[in-house]
Write a structure and sequence with these properties.
This is Helix-turn-helix domain-containing protein. Helix content is about 50%, strand content about 15%. With about 280 residues, the protein is α/β, with parallel strands linked by helices.
């Protein structure tokens, strides 16, 4: 981008340009930088091309690798502030980087476990959009689920409020497919699902959907979300309070075995109650 042209240089562009400049100055290839930082070369390339902003942890690791003090971390914060209008911007970058996620879902199936039909039903609730945009949103959500498969599969632990499996979609088949997907996911080696029963009453996380994300640097961040807004929490003290609340809630949840049994029963009850269409 020409800084002397009419197009204003964004903070994100300054950040990505500086990342590339530092690597070229060092004389390292992306593979060599990946070896030094322990980040995948493809991820580092996306940072340099602006495909991803990444996290402040990644910026800090690169600062230490290049010996640039806090320069890259400062540039990252400017770029992050610039992107703050989009509530998913920070989260999507951190989710893509995370090696593990512990999530609590208050009323809907988590995005990483949704079927296309269920995702579409939820996205339609967020506002009227064209079919083309809706298709793109569903496709993007499904693409995120690729993190749950492969040799570097994300380690995922989900606590699901009982309302998640008790609130069906208007389309019985969509709901049957979604319940079947949860049953299938609960048996994957890298996925653990537990149901939080109604009977435990109110708890510390009862008002929000929450995710704890483990980053390659060893740091943990949290993300709160409701239908209108989201907040990325990075302060250590705040994250630890959220982590404690999550651990206490997990202690009150059904075991993974009992949760799987309940999901299977819910699916069986739903399919057995479906009324065949009259011809």
């Amino acid at each position: 981008m020409d800084v002397n042209g009419d197009e204003e240089l964004s903070a994100r562009a300054v950040y990505r340009n500086e990342l590339l400049r530092q690597r070229e100055r060092s004389g390292w290839t992306l593979a060599e930088l990946a070896e030094r930082t322990k980040y995948d070369a493809s991820y580092l390339q996306r940072l340099e091309t602006g495909g991803r902003l990444g996290s402040v942890d990644a910026a800090g690791v690169l600062d230490r690798t290049y010996g640039t003090g806090d320069l890259l971390a400062h540039l990252w914060r400017l770029a992050k502030r610039e992107a703050g209008a989009n509530r998913y911007e920070g989260f999507s970058d951190v989710e893509a980087e995370a090696t593990g996620i512990h999530a609590f879902s208050l009323s809907t199936v988590p995005g990483l476990l949704q079927t296309p039909g269920y995702a579409e039903a939820l996205l339609r609730l967020e506002g009227q959009v064209s079919d083309e945009i809706l298709t793109g949103q569903v496709r993007a959500r499904m693409a995120r689920q690729e993190r749950l498969a492969g040799p570097k599969a994300l380690q995922y632990r989900g606590l699901l409020d009982e309302s998640v499996i008790r609130r069906p979609t208007s389309d019985p088949q969509v709901w049957a497919d979604q319940l079947a997907r949860l049953v299938e996911a609960a048996q994957e080696p890298n996925i653990s699902l537990q149901i939080v029963p109604f009977g435990i009453g109110p708890h510390a996380l009862v008002f929000n959907t929450v995710q704890l994300l483990w980053l390659p640097s060893g740091r943990t961040v949290a993300y709160f979300e409701n239908i209108w807004s989201g907040q990325l929490v990075q302060e250590i003290e705040d994250v630890e309070r959220i982590r404690l609340a999550y651990d206490l809630l997990r202690d009150s949840a059904l075991s993974t075995r009992d949760s799987l049994a309940l999901m299977r029963t819910t699916l069986e009850d739903h399919t057995s109650c479906e009324i065949p269409h009259q011809i």
